[in-house]
Amino acid sequence: MDSLPPTLRWNCFESGVLKLPPALLQKAWKREASLAVEEKARILAKKAERQLVSQAKRSVSEKFKEAMRLKLKDISRQQALALHVPEAGKAKAKAKPASGKAGSLTKALKKGLKKSSLKTAAALLAGSQKKVQELISAPEPPKTLQGPLFGKQVRIVAELSPSHLVGQEGKVSSHLSQKLTLPSFGLACATLNLSEKDVMPLSESWTKSLEWQPLRLSRLFKKEVLLNCGLWCEDDSFVPEPVEVTLAKKPKMLLDQQMNAAWALVRESLSDVFFVDAFLSSFLLQHEKKEYLIAHLQTQWQEHNLLFIPIYTRKPDHWTLLVLQKGSEGEPPKALLADSLKKDKAPTACANELKGLSADVDKSPLTDYPTVTQTSDDCGFFCLAVMVEYLSLRRGEGPKQRGSQHSLVADLKTKLSTFTSQLKAEVKKLSDEKEEYLMDQAVQLKKASDKAKLLAKKAEAEKGELSALQKAALKVLKEGAPPDVSDLGKEALVDIERIKTLGDPGVCSRCHWQSGCASCDVFKCTRFHVRELLQKAALKVLKEGAPPDVSDLGKEALVDIERIKTLGDPGVCSRCHWQSGCASCDVFKCTRFHVRELCRTLGKK
Questions:
Q1: Do residues 329 and 297 touch, judged by C-beta distance below 8 A?
Q2: pLDDT given for residue 100 in this prediction
């Protein structure tokens, strides 16, 4: 009531209307804003007067209402009202003109009106009390025979003009001559008079209906829907169609992608139900090589008990739905056609052609499914509403559990608009992720290419170094002279030149001797690089490409190694300069020392 304008609240309350449609509510508020201050005051005064009159009537008719309640326990409302026949009112006496001045005339008129109103109220009160006494003392009318639905809970299953009443439930207060009365029905507490065909008694086996939940869907589900509808491709084998978003208000004709997406939204966990692709059904009717598609349809008919086949016809553009259902034990299959336009024979012809593709259903007659006649391009939404109704029946919810088809169409418009918007946003996310993945792949390929170039450059450098070692090895073999400074590489020469630049200090923080090391003494640095070159040249001299090992050592070296093993490989002695041992107390270092000596010997030879 708070949403109604103040000048209309009392009128709506008396009429039993507690809620107005949005269009009427908007017009009522516009009218409220356009009224003048005097007009509003007059309406509010009239409203206060009505409230006072109704309060007086309520106080006078309490006994009458109590008597009516007692009578209504045994008889119907029509019978009780038949007992109470109102009397015709008496004509008002004409006011006699009073003599005197104008002011006295006005006072006399007001006084006469006041007396007449009091007399009228007293007469009404006396008459109402008399009628109450007559009603109380009146004999009870004979009881009438009620129908089988009397006192039972029923559900409205017919598509009535106020669509919000469809699917509502109430208790029958009267069932006479195939007519039902449902008192205090709905939010307006109205009394409905319906036919037996418009209702159905409730059953204990009916389950509770599933309600629409907020569309907080996972990305995996949305990606699966996009792949099934051909709106996304991961391997770039085809170019997917762009996602078309439906409008909640004044939507256009649904496309096949939107029909497929809507089926993914309304389908439930029923494994024996299959929805034929909307694009596939058009191929079954038009394509030349349709035998493969017919085989696919027959396979689905063998694997499932219920098929939904959307049919799209042109001139005019229209969606209809063919429902093929296998019969129970010993019953033939059913073929139903849901057509919300019912103006063209093309959908019936297409449905008969599709029905004839299967030998089991070809013999079954095509029956019309009861649908509401559409008033706009909502034929696709009515097909979806029929599928929702059918799935509701298969779940055991009973007929019209989810309301009328108009209510389902309104819900589907809102949900499908939100769902297609989410699918479009998901396509954008997937495209961005794919582009980012390709960029990462390009970066990785570039890194791999740069690494390959670096390895090739390094291999070429190593090849040049090996050629220098080959020259040094040939010099050792042919001339018998060890390598000298002229045979050193570029890096060794740079290292020696660095120490010369420092002034050949002969001592640094890394020195273990007072005479310097290879990092601060030119002589020791030159000797280190010459010995290193000698070792590499000696390895190159060996024809088999393997360096000397323990088996190539002489008798004296083996005796030295065996002596350290006899001592238990102590790893430390009085000659050690490092904590890790030296060649006199560590087997590993002793072996390495003798192998290096063997390499030097080979280099000198």
A1: no
A2: 47
